[in-house]
Amino acid sequence: MEKTYNIQQVSKITGLSTHTLRYYEKIGLLNEVSRDENGYRQYREADISWIDFLIRLRVTGMPIHKMKQFSDLRSQGESTVASRRELLEDHRENVIEQLQQMQKYLGNIEEKINHYKNLERDH
């Protein structure tokens, strides 16, 4: 029998609050979480893996509505593989742009640090 986890355990494992887990289920990001005879959520390893993927998407700046779009495509099955890939490719481009912008900002910070080091050295 497959091991299951309650919402508190999944919250600890993933770092997401129970509120966020319930919200993700409510908006359809988590749509296959089973329930026990008392109506309590029972998460499987596959659910936790999916949640981890959603976290990675969110951390890299994917908006919730795009995550929902990806989740909807995923629930439609194999026929949506190309659409899911395209969505991820678009997101990858956004992440690359963000990284380039962050590199630029980092360069600006480095310049300012060097400016202050030179000022300190001159005094």
Automatic annotation (TrEMBL):
Keywords: Coiled coil, DNA-binding, Transcription, Transcription regulation
InterPro entries linked to this entry: DNA-bd_dom_put_sf, MerR-type_HTH_dom, MerR_fam, Tscrpt_reg_MerR_DNA-bd
Gene3D superfamilies with a match to the protein in the record: 1.10.1660.10
Any Pfam family: MerR-DNA-bind
Xref: SMART domains: HTH_MERR (SM00422)
HTH merR-type domain boundaries: 4-73
Species assigned in the record: Paenibacillus puldeungensis
Coiled-coil stretches: 92-122
TM annotation in the entry: none
Keyword DNA-binding part of the UniProt annotation: yes
Protein name per Swiss-Prot or TrEMBL: MerR family transcriptional regulator
